């Protein structure tokens, strides 16, 4: 099982300068990664589900995608984000996921989900069709209300999702909760809801469903089965046939 290994923070050099500058500007900020940026003189920082670029002397920062304009123009931020997401996902074992897979999957996506989310419900209604298209779906918990209320108690949805993940039959409990049929019985166990929520937040999830391809690219939110197939085929480098125009 792979993990995103955070090397020991350097005590000198640009990375140390940038770390000190960020911690001075935002005390308590959890910095996940600092690496040399594709832009000379800058460091690429992943923190709090965002990627920013900080000048080596720690004096200036900008937030957003870094785009290389030499032909062909390309997003220089994407490779680092993809690698980071891949490593984060690789650290989550199959036993902590709720997996819907065809007999011989050709593609796999990871979906951060919430059992109270309408678009998550709509996505799941098409699961049989998605699987028939050769796509495996791995669900991870991402309660939209967060983990704790302002009073410091578990949020209702975080509690419900913990009950789902603690159920003897996770799939049955998940489907009943997602379709708002019956809430899962209250259960207590060492469940992965907190870890999955925090991992999703580090990867930039800010709503559900958030769909991530196997190569670490974020595909967006709700997609129809056919749109999902086109997205994963594109990310896999396959030729995606153009949709026929009306009347053809």
TrEMBL record:
Alphabetically ordered keywords of this record: Disulfide bond, Isomerase, Periplasm, Redox-active center, Signal
Function statement: Required for disulfide bond formation in some periplasmic proteins. Acts by transferring its disulfide bond to other proteins and is reduced in the process.
Positions of transmembrane segments: none
Single Gene Ontology MF annotation: isomerase activity
Gene3D superfamilies found in the cross-reference section: Disulphide bond isomerase, DsbC/G, N-terminal, Glutaredoxin
Keyword presence, Transmembrane: no
Location of the Thioredoxin-like fold domain: 106-231
Xref: SUPFAM superfamilies: DsbC/DsbG N-terminal domain-like, Thioredoxin-like
Subcellular location: Periplasm
All copies of domain Disulphide bond isomerase DsbC/G N-terminal, residue ranges: 14-70
Gene Ontology cellular-component terms listed: periplasmic space
Main location: periplasm
Protein name: Thiol:disulfide interchange protein
Domain of life of the native organism: Bacteria
Phylogenetic classification of the source organism: Bacteria, Pseudomonadati, Pseudomonadota, Gammaproteobacteria, Lysobacterales
Keyword Signal: yes
Family: Belongs to the thioredoxin family. DsbC subfamily.
